[in-house]
Every structure is written in C-alpha cells, then in structure tokens.
Amino acid sequence: MDAIFIQILNGLDKGAAYALIALGLTLVFGTLGIVNFAHGALFMLGAFCAVTFQKLVTISAKIRDENITAFAAYKEQPYIETWFGDIGTTIINYSVPLSILLAIPFMLLVGYVMERGLIKHFYKRSHAEQILVTFGLAIVIQEIIKAYFGANPIPQSAPAFLAGSADVGSWVGLGKNLVYPWWRLVYLCFSGVIIFAVFAFLQFTTYGMVVRAGMWDRETVGLLGINIQRRFTIVFALAAVVAGVAGVMYTPILPPDYHLGMEFLVLSFVVVVVGGMGSLGGAVLAGFLLGIVQSFASMNEIKDILPGIDQIILYLVAVIILLVLPRGLLGKTGVMDE
After folding, report:
1. pLDDT digit string (tens) for 117-135?
2. CA nearest 289: which of 257, 266, 321?
3. Cβ distance 41 to 261 under 8 Å?
4. What is the H or E stretch that residue 61 is in?
5. Could you give phi then psi for residue 161, rounded to 5 degrees?
6. Residues in the chain, pLDDT under 50
7. How would you write 146-203 as a 3-class SS string?
8. Rounded to an integer, what distance in angstroms lies between the CA atom of residue 239 and that of residue 39?
9. What is the pTM of this model?
C-alpha cells in the first residue's frame, strides 16, 4: 500500500509539470490556432531564470577569514550577505521561489516578442509550417542556453526548511515510515494554484470571457469593436509566464540543462492530444492521468515483467485512448478535423 501511495504522489508531481506545459500549449492553440513547438523552450527559459537569479545573488568577493589567525586566509562571501547580513542569507536560501519575480516580467517580454516578431506571421499558414518554424525557434533557444550556461545540469537548492521529507504516512494513517520530499509537495500545490488561477481568469473575469468568446468566434467579437488580436497576444504572453514559472519551481526536482525543454515538450504534446486539442480541461486531466500511468510503469516490479515499458507507456496509452476516442478525452468536434 505504501508503494502504491508513493507512486500516486510521484505521478501527480510529474503530471503537474505535464499539465502546466500542456495548459499553455492548449491555451495558445485555442486562441491563436498555433501549434507551438517552442513552448517547451519557454519551460526551460523559466528554469534558467532561477539559475540566473541564483548566480546574481551569490556574486562574491574574497574577504579575510577572521577565524584563521595563524596566516592570512580568505573566503568567498556573497556581496548580498556583506550588505544585508541575515536578510542577504535568507534571499540566497530562497533564491528559487524569489526568482519568480525575475521570471514573470522576463517571460512576459519573451512571449510578447515571440508572438509579435514571429508567430503572427504564421496564423494563416498550415500546421506543418507552424511546427517547423516553432521547432526551429526551440532549437535556437536551446543552443543559446547551451552557449551561455554550458551543457551540464546546474543543480538548484530548495529552501533549507523544505529540503527534507514530509511524514505523509501519518497524515493519511499509513504509518510513520512513509515519507515524501517537501519540495515535491510544494510543487504539486503550486501547480494546483496556477491551474486554478488560469481557469478562474478565463471563467470569471471580463477579460477572460472576451478571450473565450474570441476563441469560438473571432470575427463576431471583432465586429463588436474589441481588439481581440491584442488580447490574444497578451494570452500568448501569459501562457509563456505559466510555462516559465513552472520551470522555475521544477529546478530543485530536476537540475536544468539545455535539453530540458525538449524532454518535456514531446510528452506534453502527447498530453495535449490525449486530452483533446483545444480543451484546457482535457490537457489538465490527461497531464495528471499520464503522469500517474508513467509513475506506475517505472516501478521495478513492472519493469521486471515488461522491460522498457516505462519508456513507451505514454505512447501506448495515447494510442489506445485515440483509437477509442479519436478526438481525445475532452476534444470537441471541428478542432483539427481539416
């Protein structure tokens, strides 16, 4: 029972990352009709916002180590600790969550520039052309990251008090031996908040209602005097922010490298297709469902019976679901039918 519960938590944790990326992909497709293969690169850029912020706050100077008196000895001390003392130490300790303050404006800018500078020229092009140009953009971004940060993963630390494990067994009555990393639980809760915020924005705000109306009938909304294209541009930027902050918070779980975006992109597109192209609810549902399936497939007991099943299970599940439900779990008639 303990192993099953842990695998469910692992699946929800991984599924949360899939769901957040797929949510942004679906939002862009539903508003602009663009199949954005560069969306995984936005997840990676968010992760490297955390890396950049951590490097900035740990810029150091050599100072005399007063604890060593026999000879002159020096140590590296971050400027922020020299200037602000304990507050500086706290900023360094919380560099990952604080880097969201850098990621939000940066990802807004990246999303806006990407949509205005490139994506808008491919609205009326075929999906094959959209995939080619956005995939090419993803490779360019990936190579830029590799050039500036190197090819090796760069570990990021969670805040000290969240670096341990939570006694989840006691919470659910399964004993004290069942533990789970605190930061993974934080990421799961964080993902839930972001997903709720996106749906609340679209469902309960006037701006979101206009965007949803534009997704269904852009021409009619335009005839009412509303600049729906400007709103769609902002939605594209917001989708970039969702991917970026998801990447920021994932860095203590998986150290970021330049391959990170591509690793998540392919799986996230599987999630989008399984959930149903254009369906936000389907993207979230499929993300968590496939995350749990992949988690159970990675158990040693399963791999002993079916070697390599963890590498292909998502694609097998996708094939089965699409054979039964050609439009995905919550797909709608008319989307991608052409």
Report:
1. 888 888 778 878 888 888 8
2. 321
3. yes
4. strand 60-64
5. -75, -10
6. 336, 338
7. HHHHCCCCCCCCCCHHHCCEECHHHHHCCCCCCCEEHHHHHHHHHHHHHHHHHHHHHH
8. 9
9. 0.88
Which residue is it, tokens 């500036």? 148
Question: Residue 148: is it exposed, middle or buried by C-beta count within 10 angstroms (0-12/13-18/19+)?
Answer: exposed
> Residue 53: which residues within 8 A CB-CB, separation 6 or more?
95, 98, 99, 102
Give the per-residue pLDDT at 204: 87
CA distance 54 to 154: 11
Each as own residue / partner, the long-range contacts of residues 140-143 (CB below 8 Å, 24 or more positions apart, any chain) are 141/38, 141/41, 141/44, 141/45, 141/261, 142/41, 142/44, 142/258, 142/259, 142/261, 142/262, 143/258
> Distance between CA atoms of 243 and 256, rounded to whole angstroms?
14
d(CA 102, CA 247): 13
Q: Which residues contact 261 (CB under 8 A, 6 or more apart)?
A: 40, 41, 42, 43, 44, 45, 138, 141, 142
Q: Whose CA is closest to 197, among 20, 14, 33?
A: 20
d(CA 139, CA 145): 10
Per-residue pLDDT, 332: 66
DSSP result, 238-278:
HHHHHHHHHHHHHTTTS---TTHHHHHHHHHHHHHHHH-TT
- Model pLDDT, residue 46: 93
Tokens of 52: 């950049």
Angstrom distance (rounded) from CA 73 to CA 10: 46
Per the CB < 8 A criterion, the answer to whether 202 and 239 are in contact is no
Q: Considering only CA atoms, which of 131, 137, 132, 147 is closest in space to residue 114?
A: 137
Write out the two tokens for 302: 């399963």
At 261-295, the pLDDT tens digits run 888 878 888 888 888 877 888 888 988 998 888 88
